[in-house]
Specification:
mainly alpha, 2 strands, 11 helices
């Protein structure tokens, strides 16, 4: 495929995904993406401080752990002896072919996707027909961002895997001696784009359970393809091994999907519910048994 066609194709995927999200922001009861043309569904999410404490704590812990791991690893550069001892034959066979990649254009395209995809939640919350949900949406967006960033940072600074280009003799030594050369696993570009595209697709789906099948397919295809394309570009750029982007994709997609899923309103109370309790001087679990649902059966 010619280079200009590749750029056009990638831009078309991104534009289509954004367009689907913008359509979902239509005000009033009329809805372009619901099957019957009208949106009468109530808000799918609920947000209160007590239930939010575990999410806030998890996000803060993840972000803090990431910063601590990065701070304690700021002196861990690759040295010349370590670079000379790198053996591509010792690389996992699925990753071995990526050591010769070194495309600066692929790196630039991947940066474009990573930066642009951060705007998705902004498009979603602006002018949405349920404006009263702006705080749950903003809160969930921040939780997705901080959790994904924290997990990625911890992984990079604990595993400290050399990037593929460090094995490439054609790459300048100066580039290999930088701190970032030892932060290959897992891919932050893959985790970031997957987290936000899956988050966007999940939220739009939750707001529109009666969505038109074609639009739903288009939206989830975009959610899957955008981080997949970003992952491919990172491998092509020589920044990551295939296993780096697979792990990053999986981590980001999980965080982007699970956070809004856990915020959904429950139709009925579960028989047994377990919630963490965090206070000033103690922490524990609250276990509640709901017998009313069982009696009514």
């Amino acid at each position: 495929m010619p280079k200009c066609s590749k750029v056009t194709f990638l831009s078309a995927i991104f534009s289509a995904f954004i367009f689907t999200g913008i359509i979902a922001q239509k005000k009033q009861d009329h809805c372009e993406i619901c099957k019957d043309g009208f949106h009468n569904e109530p808000s799918p999410y609920e947000l209160n401080f007590r239930n939010e404490v575990p999410f806030i704590a998890t996000s803060a812990l993840s972000l803090t752990a990431g910063f601590i791991a990065q701070f304690t690893n700021n002196e861990n550069f690759l040295n010349i002896n370590e670079i000379n001892q790198l053996d591509r034959e010792g690389i996992f066979f699925l990753d071995r072919s990526s050591v010769n990649n070194n495309s600066s254009k692929a790196a630039s395209y991947s940066d474009f996707f990573r930066t642009s995809i951060t705007l998705l939640p902004i498009y979603f919350v602006s002018n949405h027909h349920t404006k009263e949900d702006i705080w749950p949406l903003v809160t969930m967006s921040l939780e997705v961002l901080t959790t994904t960033y924290g997990l990625t940072n911890v992984s990079k600074n604990v595993v400290r895997r050399p990037r593929p280009f460090t094995y490439n003799p054609e790459v300048a030594l100066e580039k290999k001696l930088k701190l970032d050369a030892k932060r290959s696993f897992f891919s932050g570009h893959a985790s970031h784009t997957a987290a936000f595209t899956f988050f966007m697709a999940k939220v739009v789906s939750d707001y529109h359970p009666n969505m038109k099948k074609g639009l739903k397919t288009l939206m989830w295809s975009g959610a899957i393809l955008i981080p997949a394309t970003t992952s491919y570009l990172r491998v092509k750029a020589g920044k990551h091994f295939p296993t780096d982007v697979i792990a990053g994709y999986a981590a980001g997609a999980f965080v982007g999907y699970i956070i809004p899923h856990l915020h959904k309103k429950k139709e009925e109370d579960p028989v047994i519910s377990v919630k963490p309790i965090v206070w000033v001087d103690y922490a524990g679990l609250s276990i509640n048994f709901n017998l009313r649902n069982q009696r009514g059966k």
